[in-house]
Amino acid sequence: MDEPTPAPGNDGRAPGSHALFRLFGVPVRFHFTFWLMVVWLIFMGSEGTQSIPGMALYVIGLFASVLLHEIGHALAARRFQIQTTEIVMLPLGGLAKLARQPNPSEEFWIALAGPMVNFVLGGALLGWTYAQGGTVELSHWRASTDANLPGRLAVTNLVLAFFNLLPAFPMDGGRVMRSLLAAKRPVEEATRLTARIGSVVAAVMGLYGLLNSNFVLIFFAFIVYVGATQEVMATSAQALMQGATVVEAMITDFRTLQHGNSIRDAADLLLATSQQDFPVLSGEETVGLLNRTALLKAMAAEGPDAYVAGVMDREFAKLSPGMQLSEAALRMGESGNCALVFEREKLVGLLTGENLSEFLVLRKIRQARGSAQGPDSGIE
Questions:
Q1: Which of 84, 174, 204, 289 is most buried per CB count within 10 Å?
Q2: What is the mean pLDDT of the chain?
Q3: Is residue 371 part of a domain?
Q4: Domain range for 193
């Protein structure tokens, strides 16, 4: 799977994940729940006739297949000059996060690249299995052995490829479907149509799972339904931000702290205002940003007499008033929930996730009223 917008986090990475290495320059992070799946797979394999090294090889091969799938997305995105900010390994697969939303033609090839990697791996492993005189049978899944390991990995890759090509979000097939539909209609409309198709897929999958008491299939149906909903919301937000700039959404009435202020001073300001993110100044120069979470942690760990200069974020996101709001939202996703807006090195505003959401809600209402009133309604 590939995701166009990075999820908010303190440093742009997925919450609950940690990096172990880089591959083709892309950080590969493992979510903590990934290791629970590894333990579960080893436990399930221990009930068969496979050796412990054989079980370990299967688990390694499975997640190597998923990782190569995501690398396929990343390399395809690179051909279109789209950076992959990170790859996150999750229990149910991987997630390649892209620095920007691809256009429909780019999305088609980027989304297709992942399953194609699995098709190639599956075909190569099948060829190796038959070249060695082996076979691939359904009974191998009930009686796993070291001898049928290549065949099982071949089938695993083919299943991954076909499953990811289902025309539903968050699978790659949903993105392929959207890119094809977007060739003749707006992206938002194509997303909604693809989401409806995905909802039908989820309903069929869930009903089949209920009738057969297959709770894994029911869980996947739930993931597909949630993925469709989230994709529609994300695409609607992108459409609402189209043409808008930072100056239209930023907060201009805000309070600041001085780097010599204490955590107690910051806490008093937090209580006295509705603001949760405070620029920290040294004289007239902006040197940091203190958010509510960092403030509370500092209060608990260091006490109210600690200085804000010791706990503020010095690597805050900087925006300009004329920057496109869609680009600003990506910057915020990489650095956190708040960004500071500067005009000629002067701090002129804040852009937070909360006021960005409020701006989008108000813009949607204005657009809806404008559509209802007609082109000559005079509504701004």
A1: 174
A2: 82
A3: no
A4: 167-242
